[in-house]
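Example 3.2
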Amino acid sequence: MDGTEVAVRGVESVGTDTVALTLETPEGFDARPGQFVQLAATVDGEEITRHYTLSSPDAEETFETTVEVDPEGSLSPYLADLEPGDAVSVAGPFGDAYYEDEDGVVVLAGGPGVGPAVGIGERALEDGAAVTVVYEDDDPVHEDRLAALADAGATVVVTDDVSDQEVVSVLAEASGQFFVYGFADFLDRANAALDAADRDAADAKTENFGPAPGDD
């Protein structure tokens, strides 16, 4: 599916410099939690495209992406300023690191990886699956949804160091399909934590967001 224009349904702040962008689901759009889309818009006369991972548990009528807003960015400030009734172009879904009705899920998320983490966690809980979420960030977002996951029975660990012994212990005891979402440097740390927990990182479904902003 390429370049379908859809309406914006809502833009909500979910933390520091981060918004949840809710969009109307295009006809024929069949996305699973953990997949990503390409959003496109014309900014100052130039078409800009960026990829964002779904952060909603489904995409039946609307779907959500979580956008980390870089004030110097080309597209994210534009998306953050959108209002209901505005439009953006959507292509996708893309990616194979997504939830497939597993009996249990263990999601390691760094930074904006919390988007797919909460979406997968909510969907898996709805399906009766065991859920573990480990989220590394020194300024967490989506705190309300993370708290709701914990209240509903998920194991949720928010940390500023995924290699912490507490995290390693949680990973060693968790069961289910492992997922890893985040920038490249986080993936390195997460894979090291999996190794320390005697888990095979090669078995995890992984989405690499590329170099973190500011990295060479």
